Amino acid sequence: MMLLTPEQQEEIDQLRSNPQLTLRAVAPGMEEHLYSAKPVLDHGFVRVIDYMGDDAAICQAARVSYGKGTKSVQNDAGLIRYLMRHWHSTPFEMCEIKLHVKLPVFVARQWIRHRTANVNEYSARYSILDREFYIPEPDSLAAQSVVNNQGRGQVLQGAEAARVLEILKSDSNRAYDNYESMISDDGQDGLARELARMNLPANIYTQWYWKVDLHNLFHFLRLRADSHAQYEIRVYAEAICEMVRDWVPAAYGAFEDYRLGGAVLSAKSVECLKRMLAGEPVTQEDSGMSKGEWREFEAVIGR
Ligand SMILES: Cc1cc2nc3c(=O)[nH]c(=O)nc-3n(C[C@H](O)[C@H](O)[C@H](O)COP(=O)(O)OP(=O)(O)OC[C@H]3O[C@@H](n4cnc5c(N)ncnc54)[C@H](O)[C@@H]3O)c2cc1C
């Protein structure tokens, strides 16, 4: 697997070897990530191109202060937790991140639904796409789930796994061979790139720059680093979580506590919980909740 070409790696090494003096806020944890590519799936990556702000910038905006806005690390962490707990979101919008992401087209289709970001994608009208397709690892080749229409069940085994893998590989390669032959521009016979690309499968890789503020990034991560998200986008979200943890440790800690690990309870759930704590036996039938809601409620309270 070649993640980056030697030329691309050289460019990154050069950028990383040329630190600049700046008066701007710098997050030391994020400086470690800057420019480097973090591998995701078989040919994909996420890398930080730029960022603005740090934990102190969130507090500075919340306090609308003249200076750094920092009282003490402990005070700041407390304020950030307060803001997160009470959905006071605009101070988090003061931090921004710009990522370069390489991802399969079917993952990009899910990702692009998050409208509160700025995107610029590699042009397959202008450039020729590389022969790079996402082929799942054997343990990600699973059958349709029998309990969840939007999910996976058992991992495929033996001959069935081999059969499916072979189809994925040969179809991808055949489609790419035809793509290449259609765009061959011998004389005037070749088809335009913008048309030839239409027979390429959705597991081909694309790339984009994606810029988003921290509030909307947390919203993205809450949905996509979640167990309900498809594995192939979840691994990107998890890679980004690691970067954000190093960038804004206090904000990420609050996000992990209140959003990723937290749960939202309906008024009915709160009522049931109060009855349970008072020692009253409560069942789904007299809870006022549907079977699905009750199942989810029981999972939250660990029954
Ligand atoms: C597990 C999972 C399954 C999904 N399944 C499907 C599916 O089957 N089919 C499908 O089509 N999508 C599906 N989605 C996509 C989902 O419905 C959202 O489109 C996606 O998660 C983006 O969320 P968002 O709109 O909140 O994000 P963003 O676009 O980033 O918006 C953030 C918030 O800004 C506000 N906002 C942004 N733009 C507007 C606007 N134009 N008008 C009003 N408010 C706006 C909203 O409050 C929104 O919540 C799924 C998502 C997940 C996580």
TrEMBL record:
Residues binding FAD, per UniProt: T90, R113, H114, R115, E121, D213, L214, H215, H219
Segments passing through the bilayer: none
Keywords: FAD, Flavoprotein, Methyltransferase, NADP, Nucleotide biosynthesis, Transferase
Co-factor binding comment: Binds 4 FAD per tetramer. Each FAD binding site is formed by three monomers.
Active-site residues (renumbered): R224
GO molecular function: flavin adenine dinucleotide binding; NADPH binding; thymidylate synthase (FAD) activity; thymidylate synthase activity
InterPro entries documented for this protein: Thymidylate_synthase_ThyX, Thymidylate_synthase_ThyX_sf
A Pfam family assignment: Thy1
PROSITE patterns per the UniProt record, alphabetical: THYX
EC number: 2.1.1.148
Quaternary data: Homotetramer.
Function: Catalyzes the reductive methylation of 2'-deoxyuridine-5'-monophosphate (dUMP) to 2'-deoxythymidine-5'-monophosphate (dTMP) while utilizing 5,10-methylenetetrahydrofolate (mTHF) as the methyl donor, and NADPH and FADH(2) as the reductant.
Family membership: Belongs to the thymidylate synthase ThyX family.
Protein name: Flavin-dependent thymidylate synthase
Upper lineage: Bacteria, Pseudomonadati, Pseudomonadota, Alphaproteobacteria, Rhodobacterales
